[in-house]
Each structure stands twice: as C-alpha cells, then as structure tokens.
Amino acid sequence: MQIRSGLLVAICLWLSVMESLALLDHEGEIINKCIQSYGGLTPELGERLERFKEWSESYEEIPCFTQCYLSEMFDFYNNQTGFDSAGVERVFGAPIYAACRKKLELPEGSGHSSCTHAYAGFHCLTKMEGHPFMVIESMPNLTKVAKDAMKDCLQVVDQDEWSSFAAFASFPVVEPIPCYTRCFLDKLGVFDQKLRRWRIPAMQQKLGVPAKGARYGACHQRRGRNPCATYYQQFTCYVLAI
C-alpha cells in the first residue's frame, strides 16, 4: 500500500473540487464520514485538517477523528489492537517506525487502543515523514558514523533552514543549506587539509561515493566562490560520477 505524501493536506478544497483531488481510494468519503458528528466537512474543519501536522502532540483538535480515519482507511491500525508494526514499516519505513515506536505501542496497562493513542501515534508518523533525520537514516550505503555526522551538522543550523534539506536530492548548483556539506565532510575527515586532497577510499567506505569504477578525475578541479561552495561542488561531482 502506498500512502501519498502530504496526507490530509488541502482537504478544505474537497468542498468544491473533490473529484480533482489526488486522494487515496474512498478517502474523501471516509473523511466526511468521520466528521459527520461535527457537522460534516465545513471550510473551518477543512482548515483544521490541513494543519494536522501542526496540531498539539497531546490535543486532537477534532476529537477521535484520527482513530476513525485510520480504522476505516488502513490495515496498519485496528481500534482494539492499535498499530501493526509490520504494516507501519511497510507504509512509512523502518526509521520512522523506530522514531515513533513508543507512541505507536499500546500504553502500559492498556489492553486496547483509544482515540488518544491513535492520534498520538499517527501525528508522530506524519510529522516525521520527510523529516531530515529520517531521510538521512534511510540513505543507503552510509555508515552510522556518516549519518551521525550529517545529523550533528543539522543541529547547528537554524531549524528554519531544515526545510531546504530535501532540495539536496536534485543537486542544485547552489548548496541549499550553506556550508552544510563542508561541515559533515570535515567531521568525517575525508578531506586532507594539509595536502588539499580528498581521501577517496575513506569517502567510499563512509559515504559510498564515488562509485567504484566511476570517472571522477576532474572533480577536484571544480571551484566555488568560497571554501564551502567548493566542497559542495566537488563532493556533488563525486556523487554524480559514473
């Protein structure tokens, strides 16, 4: 089962353009069913649903909506047994499940799920989806040391800039988060500062790039407008080398 990115966003538009929305099968009907006791899908409720990820971790703005939605919509949640770990991992991935595990497990001493439990678990899942730490954790070929270095370097960046992390995937000319690449590469020690030379074997071992057999001979010649930009330009060249 695939869950679309940005679940529950722009639902208020459903009032007028329901047929044009890229909802999951029957999602519109289920959403409307789950809020019938609140008067159906009004513009005000639509705006609340659009802000689902911004709701308080401990307060569901539309009580019991999440439990109704999950139980009607997906097979990874059951009103009695709660969240199914294998189902959640299949849809969201193991790193996100691990990050939210404590909220997904049934509360100690409780034999069944509840509206509060369903909301806490799903709210955590949707907030973590696309989170930079989760993206890093899901990256193949990276050692734990490399992942930790990348996370550490994000910690010293203003969180307002974290939203730019996803832009790295398209390899733009200008680094999305200035000096971020230099930060984690220096932490990993893959650039010899004294000799001004890349330690390719160390880079391949810790980061999985450049690919073995790739042609990257000219990558070290690339130059940016400052040291951070040069790091980014050269490392991007190594990543893309084939």
UniProtKB/TrEMBL annotation:
Keywords: Disulfide bond, Secreted, Signal. This is Uncharacterized protein Obp83cd. It is found in: Secreted. GO terms for molecular function: odorant binding. The gene is Obp83cd. Residues 1-22 form the signal peptide. It comes from the Eukaryota. Its main location: secreted. GO terms for biological process: sensory perception of smell. GO terms for cellular component: extracellular space.
